[in-house]
Amino acid sequence: DRWRWTQTDGETISLPDNDSATSFNVAIEMPNTKGTYRFALDVSDGTAYGSLDYVELVVDNLQPVADAGLNAEAQAGALVTMTATGSDPDGDPITGYQWTQVGGPTVGLSGAGSQNVSFIMANDLQDPIVLELIVFDGAAWSAPDQVTITALPAPGCCIFVSDDQTQSGNGTFGSPFSTIAQAVAAADGSLPIIVDDGTYPERVNITDGDDADIYGGYTSTGTQWKTSNTRYGAVLQVSADYDRGFNISSLTTKRTIQGFHIQTTQSSGADIAASSIYGVVCSACTIDLVGNKITMDGRNVNLTQGIHINSSLDVQVLNSEIIGGFALKNEGIYAVNGADDLTISDNQIQMRPKLTQSNQYRYGIHINSATPSPSITRNRIIVPGAADETWCVGIYSSHALPSDGGNIDYNVFDLSQNFCTSVNAPVYTRQAQNWTFFRNSFFGNGQIDSSYSNNLDEPAQVAIWAQDRDQGVWGMYPISRYNYTHQIQIGVWGRVWGNPAGLGEWKLYRNVQQQLSFGCRAYYAGDTYWDCLDNDFDGPEQTWGTCNPLDIANGDYRLSSTSICRNGTFYDVGAPDDVAAPWDP
Predict the structure, then answer these.
(1) CA 562 to CA 570: how far, in whole Å?
(2) How far apart are CA 515 and CA 529, in angstroms?
(3) CA 314, 473, 439, 346: dihedral to nearest 10 degrees?
């Protein structure tokens, strides 16, 4: 009824599923080391095991090693030849080669079974060709080795732009335009726009009919266009004359903007003679913003927004860096009025402290007014703030969001240098429904607000701050799972103003909150219910007396399972094995 394998001699080998009631087969990976490997099989009839039987495996030939060569670049449409090499630890000759394409647009391989393989380079600048090579020594095939070949722009593949031009050309390989705006005006969507490293002080308007994918990250030698060694080498300058970098409107064809540094012309601390400054504005558009850097400098401006998204469908902000400004109101990303199917992932959003103004507002991401189901994942959001500043928030979700909510997952919020006096929170939600929070890490400033007991409307730092302002039901069924909170005064805060119908129902599962005061706090919460299951509320200065992790004023709650308070007397049952831990992308 059972078969049990053990190894008795030779270099140790992992034996998966070596004690099985369902199979007498066991799959092993032999090491690339010569020697004899001995294994024993024991069989049971359900009552007892019998005598052992043995088998020996002898490794007398070592696996060869394949070398597919160095990664390369080639002009689109060019003939590319890659040469394989191989070696063998035993000194045996390499007698066989096999090339296989495993990535990129499909190309026809000529000589796939020989040492030299050839193909025509595809005209796809963003998706490189990946080849895999294995070699044969007459007895065994090698492990695979891969090589990547990236396409370079060729004549006719693209519309070209270079600021090196003394006078503007016609956008061709050897005679590029001198501005991005000229290239966009000449585009019909059939060819991408390739931009040389350089500085472009202009506003670029993009709309249906005047649109294309636009890529920075290239450099021109006059006779050849190559990928640049400088990250964000193409700089689009924003100034009072050009109050936004890319201005995208009424765009129904999905486009990509990639590889740019969009920045204000003034240095840090200088004045800008404009009321509002934007890096990218997307109004009624669909766009992918990938791998860009946006830096908003200057002061005495009413508003700076790195990215402004309004009434748009299918917008992605990915792998980018946004550095906030010094205006009275600063927002890294702002989405409003039905910015549907919005994805914000794998970015770093770094807001900056004030220079001279007081009462500043600073939001890493602001989701506003009927923006359904945004997905905010794997971002690092850093929001510092001084004591005379007003709102300092990582993600602010406000005003009548649709009932299908959205997700905030795998983000890191750093408010360790945040001391704002009013709203001071990694996440602040108002009149928003059905958010889920999963495996986020919240890091606070480690301070307790001494005026907290007399200032229930505006406590010190709160990891997730939920609030309604005279709008009826707030936050139906928000769910918080596997989040980690450290050095923040309150884990979750619920607050209703006016005539509330309640905060809905909160579900908190397996979170770790190393807060300084309350795990959860509800105030004027109406018919609010808190479901807490296997959370770890642990802090050095618990203030709830008998160590109840919930403190409820004028609201209702229920505990569906015991939560933990290590430093008190409240049912210390020990933390589950899979509660949240600090997470960092």
Answers:
(1) 9
(2) 21
(3) 20
CA distance 564 to 169: 70
Does residue 555 sit in helix, strand or coil?
strand
Question: How distant, in Å, are the alpha carbons of 54, 62, 328, 557, 569 from that of 362?
Answer: 71, 62, 8, 33, 40
Tokens encoding 86: 């191989």
- pLDDT string in tens for the chain (585-residue length): 677 888 899 988 888 766 665 566 777 888 888 889 999 888 887 777 878 889 999 988 899 999 999 999 999 999 999 999 999 999 999 999 999 999 999 999 999 999 999 999 998 888 999 999 999 999 999 999 999 999 999 998 999 999 886 667 899 998 999 999 999 999 998 999 999 999 999 999 999 999 999 999 999 887 889 999 888 999 999 877 778 999 999 999 999 999 999 998 765 556 666 678 899 999 999 999 999 999 987 666 788 899 999 988 899 999 999 998 777 788 999 998 877 789 999 999 999 876 666 657 889 999 887 677 789 999 999 998 777 777 889 999 876 555 566 889 999 999 888 777 778 889 988 766 678 888 888 888 877 665 554 344 555 688 887 776 444 444 456 778 788 888 887 777 766 555 445 555 666 766 766 666 666 666 554 555 566 666 666 544 333 323 344 444 434 444 444 444 333 333 333 333 444 444 444
What single-letter DSSP state applies at residue 121? P
How far is Cα 321 from Cα 298, in angstroms, rounded to an integer? 18
Contact between 548 and 520 under an 8 Å Cβ cutoff? The reply is: no
What lies within 8 Å, CB to CB, of 337 at 6+ separation is 310, 311, 368, 369, 370, 371
The β-bridge relationship of strands 441-443 and 484-486 is parallel
DSSP string, 213-239: -EEEEEEE-SS-EEE-SSTT-EEEEE-
Q: What is the pTM of this model?
A: 0.82
CB 196, CB 161: distance < 8 Å: yes
Rg (the chain; Cα; Å): 30
Q: What is the DSSP letter of 560?
A: S
Angle value at C-alpha 82, between 76 and 88, nearest 5 degrees = 160
Kindly state the tokens that stand for 64.
Answer: 């060869």
Q: Both tokens of residue 81?
A: 């030849």
**Amino acid letter, 386:** A
Cβ–Cβ < 8 Å for 192, 158 = yes
Count, residues in the chain: 585
Q: Which residues pair with 67 in a beta bridge?
A: 85
Is 452 in a helix, a strand, or coil?
A: helix
The span from the CA of 196 to the CA of 191, in Å, is: 16
